[in-house]
Amino acid sequence: MLDDAAAGQAGVALLGGDAGIGKTRMIAELAERAASAGFAVLIGQCAELGDVLPYLPLADALRSARGELRAALDARPVLGRLLPGGTDPGMESTSGLTQQQLFGSVLGFLSAQPVLLVLEDLHWADQSTRDLLVFLSRMLQTERVCLVGTYRTDDLHRRHPLRRVLAELNRLPSVTSVELGPLDRHEMTDYLAALGGTDPRVMGEVVDRAEGNPFYAEELLEAASEGSSMTDGLAGLLLSRTELLSDPAQQVLRGAAVAGRRADHDLLQRASGLDDLAFEEAMREIVSRGLLQPDGDYGYAFRHALLQEAVYNDLLPGERTRMHGEFARLLTARGGSAAELAHHYLAGHDLPEALAASVEAGRRAERLGAPAEAHRHFDRALGLWDRVPDAEDRAGIDHASLAVRSATTAADSGDNHRAISQLRRLPPSAEINERLSYILTDLDDEQGAIAAAHAAVEAAPDGPLLARALATYARSLQWSERHDEVEAMAARALETARASDAADAETSALITLAALAALADDIPRAKELLACATAESSGNLAVDLRAIFTQARVQYENGDLAEAAVSADRGLRLAYDSGLKWSTFGTDLRFLRLLVHYVAGEWEAAEKVASGFAVRVGTPAEALLSSFALFVEVARGLPVVEERLSWLEPFCPGDPLVNAMTRGLAAEHALWQGEAEAALEHARAAIEGLPVNDPAAIRLSSTALWALADLGRPGEADAFLERARTPAAIGPGSVRRGPLGPEGLAWLARAEAEWHRAHGRLDVAAWRAVVEAFDFGFVYEVARSRHRLAEALLAAGDRAEAQQEWRLAVEAAASLRAEPLGAALAELGRRARFSSAPSSTATEEPVPASARQASARSAAARSAPGRAALGRAAPLTAREREVLALVAEGLPNREIGERLFIAQKTVSVHVSNILSKLGVASRTQAAAVAHRDDLL
Description:
This protein has about 950 residues and is mainly alpha-helical. The chain has 49 helices and eight strands. This is Helix-turn-helix transcriptional regulator.
């Protein structure tokens, strides 16, 4: 609008929004831009004075007129009367003729030069100012004027006079209506960080309470720094809107505040004590002022939670207690929810009823699959226990059992540390020690978990509790030096569980036995056991999630990406439906799903998943998910990487997995930036936090060797290669590991190849082995390995094959939008003077386009809607069709070779040719094209 005004086309903007939403801040920015563009800026504010001072905002604006505009003002005596020292316009005649003279003078005055005229807080404007606004909106046409009026939407009650004016003006073509809405969570977090917020937990609470209002957020952040819940300024602002209500309306509003954020019509009327007519009139007054708004068919809700909080905090203590007691009595009579009853009984100081209602509310939340809410109710009941003489009779459960349920629901909601703290405060028993061991295992406290599980088995009587204790004992031993005892312990747990009909213990034992089979490379047995474990619900959601996650993990680690995706999706549906997305295995399933997308080359989906993992993390669970988001973000070179790494850093020392993921991917990021020394330090720190038999050390060691090769320092290479080889041979305790899955073997091959590179050798055979190893479906790593293979082939003098490998890598990097890899390939192509044209012989032409341009071409080719697969190149050969059919079945190269009696290397060549001919980047995409175009 400023641009239009400068060109001689006047415009009017009406800027609305709740108090504190940012209208004034926007006007300040607009005024700054207008001034820099040569506009005179006039800003006037209305005041909450009604019609006592007509034209108050105009008078306020005119006082800042300077220069040419001031001369124009002095030349108009009618306007001069509005300035200090002039005749008070409120004492003059306000006849129509006088008003016409004034309006004409304002219009002439605004024509002197480009002007931004702002009239703020029009909800307080007098009638004359509203008339002036209508006049100018209709008459301004070719003047170089931008007129802006602001108003509070939350102050426009149903009969507010400005409503009619806004409706009239919004029909004019020259008027633009802008209403500011609340900021979303990410924007609000950014805003708090800009204000100096540093504590993630405090910031998270402020974001929740502010509900998108930046002024409220700023005030709440200040209050939090002072240790209070709300500043006086914010409370005063909120309460000022209630003071204009009549006494009956204030009485009803106070009752609504006691009811909570939402209130039922009938319940609120009964609590108010008003008859039907008086209550309806009070409600009409409240709703018309925007304090409450209709909610559903028969209720009301506060416009903002902080308004409810301010009204509630303004109640006198005795008044608050009495009203809560009344709501509790009314809800009991009508059969209200246990959660509501618990709240009102507690606030009304009826502790016995509050205890009983809290326990029942926790039970109901458990049945609904809401562990966080269940824990809150159970925890409140535990806090009341010692203050209620007959607590056990009231609760219908003993103290120890209630504490175990509270701890279990805390763990299910992702708060393992809280759960352990509660359990350790209790007198030890078989049930308590079994739960303690289970949770300590999730936290990798091996010794504590084993000790608690042993105590549970020793104390448990025959039956379901013994079965659970044995299953948990087997689980706690799984990765310890006593690994040889696990199978016998799990088998005993399975037998005891089946004899006592303990379905959850049976499932837990099956999962442990399956993990042992997978470790021994007996994958068919592992899959069979997991199929039994996941066939039906065990009655324990946490165990069911563990079973599905283990099934998905075994499938993923053995290269069965399509199966892993199906299992992970099933687990995620269960986690979300049951409220367990932040539990241990709910979190694990979420990052595993991202990894399946990442490995399969489905990076748009992977990035979408990663974008849902918070950057500004506040809990260990959030930090774990955030660290996995780095996979795709580092590989694509996204700007968010640096910020995510900075927020993850404080969580690294306390969590080995977060440390391994964060520091390992920080190392890769540093290597893409050419900072090999920093990368080596990151990789070393990541490896140091892992057990010697952890397979994650293989990938991290290969990254360290990459850094050493770039630095030209072979001295440390032998140690890192040995560190990579150790987990490939040693399992838990003293057990020898069976062969690693395809990905583990591929990373080990990468470590071997990087070791050669660190010693100054570009070994063609080693890098060819890496490409073949990753060709089980890991699209990105195949491309990265082809980059190195092309280098090695060039060094060996095989230029034609080098260009072929380079071209395939460029196509894959472009399709994935892997910018750092694309840039490295572009540099290699420039040095080698490769052509990007798909030919079998090299040319002497330089690379004609950057990796980014190649990405755009490839993306355009992929998006062509009707392009048949066989129209891109020569038809598939008979052998390629056979290979494609087995690829579509999900078989890795090794099994395809066994089926067709050909070498695995030959299979790899066929798969590469198929992908090239079909114009796809992954085996999954090739299978989809094969089914779509009837190629099988």
